[in-house]
Amino acid sequence: MSPLFVPGDRPDRFEKAAASGADAIIIDLEDAVAPEKKIEARNNVAKMKALPIPVLVRVNAPASEWHEDDIRALAHAPVHGVVLPKTQNPTEVLAVALALGDRAPVIALIESALGMAQVRDIALARGVKRLAFGSLDFAVDIGCAHIREALLSARSELVMASRLGGMNGPIDGVTTSIDNMQAVEDDAAFACALGFAGKLCIHPKQVEAVRRGFAPTEEELAWAKKIAAAGKDGAVKVGGTMVDAPVRMRAEQILRRAGL
To answer: Does residue 234 have a pLDDT over 60?
Structure first.
């Protein structure tokens, strides 16, 4: 999954973003919108027409002065989900679920130590469809560098919480570079290796780089095809290694990522 952010105060970009090749767009009412434009951005969502791909809306955080009005504005808007920023406990998710019902499930964006400490309970909350990592805010909150080593345990916890919640893998945070697509691809591949199933994008150029990062390499695909061709019964030797049920399941996962 490679959802693309678009500022809520730029309705001229909504259709362009929908045509970017992204799996979904996230109309942002939070970080990308200045305080004096919050109401304008909210109104843009309330009156927008349906778009050809899923539309998610990142509302303002539960503790903000704009949150409740944002949720009310989504009651009849053509949206497919809510990205809830700075999610810190299951109660915040439940409030959104009660307000919007099943028509707009929640992607809980974990961006703080408190949210991470409760992420397994959040994953089990009514209305939660996916978890996502607000890695930049999280790094600021705990005072660490925004590098892979410092955030490894947090990413692993999100993967574990998603599994325990019976959901697909979480969505990784953004890569800030909009010029170095190799960095975006490498970050996506790293997230994929940890068990993530998508990555947030902040520029249309990043969408294809994220897709490449989550796609199996030629070596992985060749290995998976070889394992699949060896049959599904018992333990067999393939290329000098023993293949049993867990190895076959891993090969099947790789083939599914390739659409095979």
So the answer is: no
- 12 and 92 fall within a common domain: yes
Q: Which amino acid is at 248?
A: R
Question: Per-residue pLDDT tens for 151-185?
Answer: 999 999 999 999 999 999 999 999 999 999 999 99
- For 153, list phi and psi in degrees, rounded to 5: -65, -35
Together in a domain, 87 and 197: yes
Distance CA 31, CA 98 (A): 25
Q: For residues 141 and 226, state if they share a domain.
A: no
Q: What is the pLDDT of residue 75?
A: 87
| Alpha-carbon span 86 to 100, nearest angstrom | 19
Burial classification of residue 172, based on how many CB atoms lie within 10 Å of its CB (0-12 exposed, 13-18 middle, 19 or more buried): buried
Pick from 220, 219, 218, 200: which is nearest to 210 by CA? 200
Tens-digit pLDDT profile for residues 111-148: 999 999 999 999 999 999 999 999 999 999 999 999 99
pLDDT band at 240 (very low <50, low <70, confident <90, very high): low
Number of domain units in the chain: 2
Domain encompassing residue 250? 218-257
